[in-house]
Design goal:
This is Phage protein. With about 110 residues, the chain is of the alpha+beta class. It has one domain. Helices cover about 25% and strands about 35% of the residues. The chain has 2 helices and 6 strands. The strands form 2 sheets. It has a 3-stranded antiparallel β-sheet with strand order 1-2-3, with no helix packed on it. Strands 4-5-6 form a 3-stranded mixed β-sheet. The protein starts with a strand and ends with a strand.
């Protein structure tokens, strides 16, 4: 497994080359459930115009869901929530900017959309 720290956050990506998956790790995971995956777009093999087999296509899936219901009752709680969402934005931006490298590092065979 490989760990990549995301600058400016308390978060890291854990890349598991054996299982070809990656996970978001760090303080945010105490309040948020994350989904991070390269999902197959189409499982059915298909042929191009020349009869060559298309490689499996994948799409990046990122999602963050709060573990508890968010209830903003003051500016203090709103600011705390904003800190989390700002960090999630940084994490997701990092992953989106580096998705091809992550995809290749994991050794997934296919095409990234």
């Amino acid at each position: 497994m490989e760990q990549i720290k995301i600058t400016g956050t308390g978060t890291a990506l854990i890349l598991d080359r054996v299982n070809r998956i990656f996970a978001i790790s760090g303080g945010l995971t105490m309040q948020w459930d994350f989904i991070s995956d390269f999902k197959k777009i189409d499982d059915e093999p298909s042929l191009d115009e020349d009869g060559e087999l298309f490689e499996t296509a994948y799409d990046l899936v990122l999602e963050a869901k709060p573990k508890t219901k968010i209830n903003l009752t003051s500016s203090y709680f709103a600011k705390e929530h904003k800190k989390d969402t700002d960090e999630i934005i940084k994490v997701f931006s990092f992953i989106e900017d580096n998705k091809r490298n992550i995809f290749e590092t994991l050794g997934i065979r296919g095409v990234l959309e």
